[in-house]
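Page 37, top half.
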Amino acid sequence: MDILKQMQSTIYELINGTNVMSILAIVFSVGIAIWVYNRGRQVLTYQNLIALSWDKDYLEARKVFIKIRDNDKEELIELAKSIQSSEDMTAVRSILNWYEIVAQGIESKILDEKMVKDYYKTTLITDYKKMMPFIEETRRLYANDSFYIKFQALAKKWNNNKTP
């Protein structure tokens, strides 16, 4: 019973007079902190998307990736099986690794999912679907189902139209 009286007393004190302004100041401060955090995440996402659109190495890798991505399933499986490093393999892994990093950034709330989704949704889902034979073969060869797992989860989420 003492705890209940103490809680009632504390609530009364918070509501009564001088503490109301303190509570409002705290609530306002928390609201501002949340807004600043979200805005900072959006700025970081925007800066990364813009920088990437001008990055020559990324653009070159993307061109090679698209040519390979559009091959048939058997050719993608054979590429996954090839043990030699090549420009093609480097481009494919670079783009898939980039998707994995983006998915990790979104999952960790470092990148703004809505902004990335608005910019990349169709491309990401298309790349995922077309590269699945390569991804599955890579997982099989290395006996590691975690390769590109975050990329896969993000593509499936967006493909199912789950909004951020």
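Page 37, bottom half:
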Amino acid sequence: MLITDGLSYDELKRILQQKVMDIELDDFYELSYLVNDDVKYLTKKYEDDYRKKVVELMIKRCNLLKNDRKSYPGLVDKDEIDNINEILNKEFEEKILNKFNIIIVYAIYFLKEPIHPTDSIFAGLKSMSYDGEHYYCPIKKHHMNNENAICKYCIAREIDEND
């Protein structure tokens, strides 16, 4: 899928809404098994909670996208188009994740939310924070150069540990 210049947010939303119809219930089951890799550094106490939150959030966002009737003014700018194309055309080793790229685009550009659940507990028992204006992620800086990660697109900001 390739998004071109001059695209409005409403047109982008319609494209995403068409693609979201390809996501089926079995895809969420498969996603829940893949999340197991994300929890390998968490203590047992937080593993199930994290798994559940990620899958529930993807289901919620999928349903929000399917039923979104809002109008979004404006045109998608060139930098955003480049990022959206990178996300939508990203090929993960686990093919099922490719289907969920549209949900990531929707979360970032329409919901204005971080990719991960905002109440996620990460390794080291760190969690995201929100100051009323911006989200902050304690693990983003560790994944910015990871080719398999999508952290560089996330709206959450890195936490400066010197603060």
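Margin note: The chain has seven helices and five strands.
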